[in-house]
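Q: My labmate handed me this sequence with no annotations at all. I'd like to see what the chain might look like in three dimensions before we decide whether it's worth expressing. Could you predict it?
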Amino acid sequence: MLFHGGEPLLWGIERFYEIYEYEKELSDKTGVKFTNSIQTNASLIDDEWIRFFKTSHIGIGISLDGPIGVNAHFSQDESLSFKRTISILDKLKNQKVSFGILSVITNKHIVNGAESFYDFLVENSIKNCGLCYCYNPDDKCSVDSEKLGYYLSDLFDLYFDGEARVNIREFNNAISAILTGKHRCCSHHQRERCGYYLTFLPSGDAFFCDPYNLRKENCLGNISECSISDMVSCSKHQELFNMIQKQVRDYCNKCSVKDICGYGCPRTDRDNEINYFCSANQILYSHIINTIKDRRKSI
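A: Here is what I predict for the chain of 299 residues:
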């Protein structure tokens, strides 16, 4: 189960303890194993939360986009929140609580260069990082796809040959796909797994994966009224699944990196067009393929 937001810690630590105890009870009865993760901006993490994280073994993702200069999306002064977040990371490390960060990559990152971001990870002993590429079809804030491809290629070189070992999720996934043919991320599975992860609102309404547009007509049902199996077998779920398959199939079948890219996440499909990050993926994955080929030749 993934707790996302908004800010999920606002739900209260008491509720998280209740869920944790309920899952243990169900696991003892049924043998079903539960895994949980939480995505938070870390602003509410205190000693009590850290104790809970240690006992529950919940996966922790901290929303942090990088060094000062790339985090202030809505505020002019990011220094105070940045310093507090870094202090929370230090507390987690001191208490031996594992965590990763999730970074939204914007045009500010590209201007600063990949080395700035990599150095930030190394200097703060951040071992695990996931990347989320900024995309908003309603304004002009989306990161430039082609420039993103070259930025990520530079970042990959630092990740591959840099002074410190940092796990960057997207690069780990790509290498796994190239060397083993196995994919670790749902967005790399030629969209065969789209709809496996349902989004639940506080009201109990469920939606297909994690859509930007939570329109009522796309609701799959409410958890208080129908089962999850009913939701994933309903006509609306199948309709959405068929739509995202059809949207890219013809174009993507001609692509040389389709087996790594896996058609990309449908959340970033443009209406009646290819995926917004298609050019970024082609540049990045071609670079990774060539890098691995060259390394194999030199061994």
